[in-house]
Recover the amino acids of this structure.
DNA sequence: TCTGGGGTCCTAGGACCC
DNA sequence: TCTGGGGTCCTAGGACCC
């Protein structure tokens, strides 16, 4: 909790649906539902016109159609959403460098890192009014709801209070008065299961929660959540706004219109997902060590199986092979409604099968003028999957040897001189024997 | 015509090492 | 011969968020 109301939370109103209404004027003023439009789809966003019919996020689309047959049902255009989101995030970064996006349509901004003349309630209100106008400008007509307070928790609660197109500033010192009468479910992190656990010990409101000892909360909810809620019940929240967060996993999943039983089909679907994951890994210039397969069976029971490799990979065949092996461990004879393939334990560097690496290196050759990129790309690490002899080349640089493990190879590049191996090191003693090839 | 897709964080148990 | 903890890694599942 800060002494001044310097944490701002923005939430774009009915974001996906609003983008559709912006781009298609015939949809304006009408119910619009964006989400899965197949037999097993759910609603991602409903326009306020559709919400009037009782349609809301996470509702099965079939139910939404029943409640609001005249709505436009759209599958969504994520490219347009990303573009619009990017414009808003840029705008926010113009206010303060400390911007933490939570999703395409939500972000925290730490105003204490902004060039702010007046951090009083009146001062930040004026800033927020201006921000809201600019949001509408840069998005081509969308509105956002803004909450400002002394912490992330309070800012987030505040932005919920006056949707859509709202602006609420909670003056420091008023947090407890605001929270006490509210249901515990307004607290982010308190979902149906936690609410039920709390209900069983007689807790319905934040005031009720505040009356429970920390020991009791830890007993009922576990260490992390119990401690966390003990603090939030008192509006104690020091969490910083974090602008740069590294992804921890990349995954793809699909729910099928019909359950699949045929092994060959399932294998082929896993294969396709492994390819998609790989594409995204490569785009992110990343690789991962742990492959996870997710399976939802006909009865909606969900199972995951994972395997951790000795080194990271961004190879579709490897990921697919591991995922299919994991699939074989599960009894899928009753039918599979969802398959997913994910990769975690990400490394910010690229594994390579050295025999197929030459093209990749070419693709990733740094721009000569980009010295910073060069410094990073000049050093690449390779995972050698148990090959007897490994060698690679970049320009005229070579290394070879035998063993298993991770080896670091530093190349000279076009900008630093002729392509030559400068040095190499490995974590497996066998690989210490790596050496440049004899003169040809 | 039940229940998406992309994530994050937490828990608990077992293996393994010191 | 029996008995320890602590730390870390891995795995599976669950809760939650947008």
């Amino acid at each position: 909790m800060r002494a001044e109301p310097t944490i701002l939370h923005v939430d774009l109103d009915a974001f996906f649906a609003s983008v559709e209404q912006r781009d298609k004027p015939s949809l304006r003023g009408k119910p619009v539902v964006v989400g899965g439009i197949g037999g097993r789809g759910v609603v991602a966003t409903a326009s306020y016109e559709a919400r009037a019919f009782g349609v809301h996020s996470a509702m099965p689309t079939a139910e939404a159609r029943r409640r609001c047959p005249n709505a436009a049902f759209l599958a969504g255009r994520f490219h347009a959403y990303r573009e619009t989101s990017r414009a808003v995030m840029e705008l926010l970064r113009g206010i303060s460098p400390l911007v933490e996006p939570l999703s395409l349509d939500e972000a925290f901004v730490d105003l204490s890192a902004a060039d702010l003349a007046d951090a009083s309630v009146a001062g930040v209100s004026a800033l927020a009014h201006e921000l809201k106008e600019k949001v509408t400008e840069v998005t081509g007509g969308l509105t956002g709801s803004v909450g400002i307070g002394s912490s992330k928790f309070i800012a987030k609660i505040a932005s919920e209070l006056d949707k859509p197109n709202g602006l609420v500033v909670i003056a420091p010192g008023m947090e407890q008065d605001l929270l006490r009468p509210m249901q515990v479910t307004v607290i982010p992190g308190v979902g149906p299961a936690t609410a039920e656990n709390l209900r069983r010990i007689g807790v319905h409101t934040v005031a009720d929660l505040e009356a429970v000892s920390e020991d009791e909360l830890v007993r009922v909810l576990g260490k992390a959540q119990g401690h966390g809620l003990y603090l939030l019940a008192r509006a104690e929240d020091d969490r910083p706004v974090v602008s740069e967060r590294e992804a921890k996993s990349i995954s793809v999943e699909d729910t099928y219109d019909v359950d699949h039983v045929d092994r060959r089909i399932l294998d082929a679907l896993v294969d396709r997902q492994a390819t998609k994951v790989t594409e995204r890994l490569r785009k992110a210039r990343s690789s991962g060590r742990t492959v996870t397969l997710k399976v939802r069976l006909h009865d909606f029971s969900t199972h995951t199986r994972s395997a951790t490799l000795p080194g990271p990979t961004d190879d579709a065949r490897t990921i697919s092979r591991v995922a299919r092996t994991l699939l074989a461990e599960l009894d899928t004879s009753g039918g599979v409604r969802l398959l997913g393939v994910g990769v975690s334990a990400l490394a910010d560097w690229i594994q390579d099968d050295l025999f197929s690496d030459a093209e990749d290196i070419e693709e990733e050759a740094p721009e000569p003028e980009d010295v910073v990129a060069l410094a990073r790309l000049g050093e690449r690490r390779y995972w050698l999957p148990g090959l007897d002899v490994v060698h690679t080349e970049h320009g005229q640089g070579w290394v070879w040897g035998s063993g298993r493990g991770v080896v670091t190879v530093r190349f000279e590049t076009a900008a630093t001189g002729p392509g030559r191996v400068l040095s190499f090191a490995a974590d497996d003693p066998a690989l210490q024997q790596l050496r440049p090839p004899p003169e040809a």
Notes: Residues 35-36, 38-44, 58-63, 65-66, 103, 189, 222-225, 247-255, 300, 338, 340, 342 of chain A lie near DNA strand B (CB under 10 Å from a C1'). Residues 351-425, 427-440 of chain A have pLDDT under 50 and may be disordered. Chain A is about 35% helix and 25% strand.
